[in-house]
Amino acid sequence: GYQPCDPQIICNRVNHVQTCLEELEELAAKRRKELEDSRQLWTFFQEMEEAEAWIREKEKILAAKTCGRDLSSVMTLTNKHKTMLGELGNRRALLHQTMKKGEKILAKKSFSSVGIQEKMREVCLRWKKLEEVTGLHQQRLEDALNFFQFSAETDDLVAWLQDTYRIVSSDDFGHDDYSSQALLRKHRAVVDEVEKHRAAVLSLRKQLALLAPDHRQGVDVQIRVVEVEQLYGEVAEVAVLRTQWLQDALAVYRMFSEVHACEVWVDEKEQWLEKMEVPEELDEVEVVQHRFESLDQEMNSVMGRILDVNQVVQQLVDGGHPSSDEVRSCQDHLNSRWNRVVELVESKKSQLSSVLKIQNFLLEC
Question: pTM for this structure?
C-alpha cells in the first residue's frame, strides 16, 4: 500500500526548515550581539567600579598622609609620592580607555544612557578631585621640603658659626715670633671664610620670604634668622679684634726679638769699653781711634733699630695693649743701657782725645 510523497511537499518541508534555520541564525546572531553588548556594558561598569575603588583608596591614603617632621622624612614621603604619581599616570590611561568604551556603548544606543552617563560623570568628578588633592599634597610636600632644607642649611650655618666663634675667640696668641705668625696666617684664612659666609647670612631673609606662609610666618623661624644674623655679627667683630690682637702680639714678639739683638750688641760693646785701657803710645791710639770710627757706624745702625723699637712701643701703649707695662719696662731698660754705652763711648773718646793732644804736644816739642 506504499504511495510516494508528493515532491512539492518535500520542497515545502525543506523550505520551511531552511526558513526556520535562517530565523534561528538571526536570533542567535542577535542574541550574540545582545550578549556581547551586555558583556561590554558590565565590563565597563566593572572597570568603573575598580577605578572608583582605586580612587577611594588613594583618597584615604592622601587624607592620612603628613608632610613629615624633618628633612629625611619629607624626602622619603616625596619619593613615595613620586611613585604614586606614576601609578596615577597609569591609572589615568586606563580610565581614559574605559571612558572611550563608555562612549562607544552610548553611541550604539543599545542600553539606557542615563546610568552610563551618570557613572561616567561621577567617576570623572572623583578623579578630578583626586588630582586636585594630589596636587595640593605635592605642593605641601614641596613647601615642607623647602622649609626643612632651609632649616637644615640654617642649622649647618649656626654650627659653623659657633665653631668659628670658638676659634676666633681663642686667647692663644703664640709664645714667640714664629708661632704668632703661624696663628695669624691661620686666622686670616678663617677671616676669609667668615667673609665668604656673609652672602649666605644675607640671603637668609630672601630664602625665608620664598617659603610658604605657614612656614615663614612662624615665630621660631623668624627668631632663628635674627639669631644667625646676630651670631654672624659677633663672629665678624671678634675676628677683627683677634686680627688686631695677633698683630699686636706679633709686634711685641718682634720688638722683644729686636730688643734682645740690640742688648746682645750693647753687652758686647759695654764689656769691651769697660775693659778697654786707653793706650799711651801714638800708634796704638790711632788703632783704637779707627776702631771707634767703625763703632760709630755700628752705633748709627743700632740707634735706628732702637728708634724703631721705641716707635713700636709707643704704638702698642697708645693702642692700650694689655702688655703695655711690660713693653714700656723693656723699652726703658734698653734705652738705659744704650745711654750707658753712649756715655762710655763719649768717655773713652774724651780720654783718647786727651792722649792725642798730649802726644801731639810732645811731638811738637
Answer: 0.68
